[in-house]
Write a structure and sequence with these properties.
With 422 residues, the chain is mainly alpha-helical. It is built from 18 helices and no strands. Helix 9 runs parallel beside helix 18 and helix 16 runs antiparallel to helix 17. It is flat, with a radius of gyration of 29 Å. This is Type IV pilin biogenesis protein.
């Protein structure tokens, strides 16, 4: 038993890998697998996790704590991703079933063939529909339709029906793809986290600078030798930053860096926080893209653009997205040109205002609105990709300089000690 507990660094990752494999295997099946073999695998996985966490009490160390924190973070990410996949599966199934009025039968099968969150949400939706609630209200109340584009899709289908074809016909309007946006943002966060792997080595580097280098300096002083110039410069920097103003500045920089990382993870786990006032401006282009997508679909079905603005005001899923449409309607009623009204309301930028009359002359403003919506998302992703890439490069450069100094200084120290002994 002690041997098993001592190898928790292997047991916990193996148990998590087994859990992921089970989830992936079940994702390829329409029904859940409750066989004896699957029950045995779940028991083995639970015993691995139990033995791994019990080992913390027998062999506790800094490495164990860091490893536990990292595994806890990865477990949270895995749980969030699984929940989002389950919500997406239930949402798209309900959206398709609502078009054929077969949602009660669909929810019955979801509740019978699944467990956990999917089963609870299916039962709650069944209960709400049995009480006479509309399907769109039920999906939004149970947070099955949770994202901006999900709520917009529900409201569009409720107002205009399941069809998304333009009036003349041939092709459906395709605005920004929510899953593509989510995957791009997750790729940016993953790149930032992967580029920040060196953060785990900062405690070791600080230990070398604050503990080992002063010890080496004292040893060289006793032997009558001169410490290498690199370590002398490190000690000079250490003496400088130990002054009170520099200490406060260093602590502030570290706290700000940690706060940025924690904020990014928190916003990824709870994306609804982005709709609050302090964080809303981080994704302003995303919210404007939602407004333009709603206006595009409304303009495709309403007789006039004035009616389309009034319909889009009812379609957007957040109150702060309704204000630009209210200003646009007011400007149009006061006799403003369409492009000017959209610019004054904040729906389009100055550059987009110059392009909008071209599509109006050709009689198809929805094409321009679609391109504006997609360009807003691409511009936001490019902007954050640029800053994230620069941050990763800067962090890697600083870490490479620090490691290079320590490596060269260590070689010089060893050469001096070898020469002294010789």
């Amino acid at each position: 038993m002690t041997y098993l507990l001592s190898n928790w660094l292997i047991l916990v990752p193996l148990a998590i890998s087994l859990f992921i494999a089970i989830q992936v295997a079940q994702a390829h099946r329409d029904t859940s697998d409750d066989s004896l073999l699957m029950l045995l695998l779940r028991c083995i996985m639970s015993l691995m996790l139990l033995a791994g966490f019990l080992s913390l009490g027998t062999r506790i160390s800094i490495l164990s704590i860091l490893w536990l924190l990292m595994l806890s973070g990865l477990s949270v990410v895995l749980v969030v991703k699984l929940r989002r996949l389950a919500r997406s599966a239930l949402f798209h199934s309900c959206l398709n079933a609502a078009a054929t009025r077969q949602m009660p039968q669909l929810l019955f099968h979801f509740a019978a063939e699944n467990r956990g969150w999917l089963r609870r949400r299916s039962v709650c939706l069944q209960r709400l529909l049995a009480q006479g609630r509309e399907w769109d209200d039920a999906l939004q109340q149970q947070e099955v339709a949770k994202g901006m584009y999900d709520c917009l899709a529900v409201r569009l289908q409720k107002r205009y029906g399941p069809s998304t074809q333009i009036r003349l016909g041939e092709q459906p309007r395709s605005g920004p793809q929510p899953k593509r946006i989510e995957s791009q943002i997750e790729a940016l966060l993953g790149r930032l986290m992967l580029g920040s792997w060196f953060v785990l080595t900062i405690p070791l580097s600080l230990f070398i600078i604050l503990a080992i280098v002063p010890t080496l300096a004292q040893m060289f002083e006793e032997f009558g030798l001169q410490l290498p110039s690199i370590f002398r410069n490190l000690l000079a920097c250490y003496d400088l930053v130990t002054e009170p103003p520099w200490v406060f500045l260093a602590i502030l920089v570290v706290l700000l860096l940690m706060a940025c990382y924690c904020l990014g993870i928190l916003l990824w786990i709870f994306p609804r926080l982005l709709q609050s006032q302090p964080f809303r401006y981080l994704c302003a282009d995303y919210f404007r893209s939602v407004s333009l997508t709603a206006l595009m679909h409304a303009a495709d079905r309403e007789p006039t653009l004035l009616e389309a603005c009034r319909a889009a005001e009812q379609l957007v899923p957040a109150p702060f997205l309704q204000w630009p449409f209210q200003r646009a309607v007011s400007a149009l009623e006061n006799g403003c040109q369409l492009s000017e009204a959209f610019h004054l309301s904040g729906l389009v930028t100055s550059a987009e205002q110059k392009q909008l009359p071209i599509s109006l002359d050709e009689g198809d403003p929805t094409w321009s609105l679609q391109q504006f919506s997609i360009e807003r998302i691409d511009r936001m992703v490019r902007r954050y990709s640029f800053w994230f890439q620069w941050l990763v490069v800067l962090q890697t450069l600083l870490f490479a300089v620090l490691v290079g100094w320590l490596a060269v200084g260590t070689i010089q120290v060893l050469s001096e000690l070898i020469s002294f002994q010789a």
